[in-house]
Specification:
This protein is an alpha+beta fold. It is built from two helices and six strands, in the order αβββββαβ. Strands 1, 4, 5 and 6 form a four-stranded mixed beta sheet that branches. Strand 5, helix 2 and strand 6 form a beta-alpha-beta unit. Helix 1 packs across helix 2. The N and C termini lie far apart (87 Å). It holds the Pfam family Asp23. Belongs to the asp23 family.
Amino acid sequence: MIRELAPPAERGRLEIHPAVLRKVVEHAADQVPGTLRHERRLAGIDIGEAGASARISTGSGDPAAVDVRLEITLQYPASVRTVVDAVRAKVGEELARVAGRRVRAMTVTVAGLRPARPTAARLQ
């Protein structure tokens, strides 16, 4: 006897934890040219690298909409507005593609501007 499956929409629901959405946002932001990962130090000790840092809020109204607060470091010199616009676009695309979510609001804070590669100190 062959049983027919119920349509996918009637089989259950999918919930994606905000921590997963946060990782998707951070990864997407780190992929945009002009953003930088930077070293993390604690009491002068190198403890690795850090990239974009995000906070995600899901609303009670539209379950597919999320609010994003994102902090990034950019390469210097670069057009801040151009890079931030590219970050906004990439984050929106990735959230839609990976999680079926859309960005309701996004706040981007540029936490720093750093050269792409450390430059040697010039002796005078």
